[in-house]
Design a protein that fits this description.
The protein contains two helices and five strands.
């Protein structure tokens, strides 16, 4: 099964996460299929969350499941964007 989850990067006490589509049996920071976005929780200014919505919907349409944390971040991202 394909799951969209966070893969940790960065250094000690300075986390940086890639939002990736991966096989559910892969390790957290191991092999992945595609990078869908990133999340930087320690960003001071600028963009701390970036998600490619078109790729996210593509993977969801093909049966990928979101992890609980990624689902929360997607919801947060959609609330932050103004609806036109």
């Amino acid at each position: 099964m394909v799951i969209i989850r966070l893969a940790r990067g960065g250094s000690k006490k300075r986390p940086f996460y890639n939002i990736v589509a991966t096989d559910s049996r892969s390790r957290r920071d191991g092999r992945f299929i595609e990078r869908v976005g990133f999340y930087n929780p320690v960003a001071t200014k600028g963009e701390s969350l970036c998600i490619a919505q078109d790729r996210l919907t593509y993977w969801q349409d093909n049966g990928a499941q979101l992890s609980l944390t990624v689902a929360r971040l997607v919801k947060q991202s959609q609330q932050a964007q103004p609806v036109a």
